[in-house]
Amino acid sequence: MSSSGNGSGGTKKLAFPHLGFVGGLLFAIRKAGKVTPVEPPEYLKCPITQELFGDPVILSQTGYTYDRPAIERWLRQKTPPTDPSTNVELYTTETVPNWALRDAANEWCTANGAKPLQDPESAKRQLAGGINARDRRAPGGGGGGLR
């Protein structure tokens, strides 16, 4: 490239000092092979751990959902037990699996190339002795429940 404004009348090469950085950046991107992982939406994160739910359970007294290991650890550490979101003192620490949120988390994992959640042994849907373990009613039996 010719340069007429330098007073020497000669030819000079333009140097691009940032090209080394850009080249290095492109190399790093190619080497990584992937874009940074997508962060799950807030509604799929446990309020205690701020991570994707692995085993979401509903705290029966308050209706808030937490990851099972996180809420169990929280309740062991608090005397008297309280809800982490509201600080309400709990008279029961019973939890119920949140199947809808588990299904939503699995859908998000599938859509974003993440591994689907494993069903923990303590949260598997199962029929025990002919009784639906989720609602404690015999399938197709009497009672005023939905069919």
Automatic annotation (TrEMBL):
Stretches assigned to the U-box domain: 39-115
A Pfam family this chain is assigned to: U-box
Example GO biological process: protein ubiquitination
InterPro entries with a match to the protein in the record: Ubox_domain, WD-SAM-U-box, Znf_RING/FYVE/PHD
GO MF term set: ubiquitin-protein transferase activity
Top-level taxon of origin: Eukaryota
Chain segments carrying region Disordered: 112-147
Full protein name: U-box domain-containing protein
Native organism: Mantoniella antarctica
Upper classification of the organism: Eukaryota, Viridiplantae, Chlorophyta, Mamiellophyceae, Mamiellales
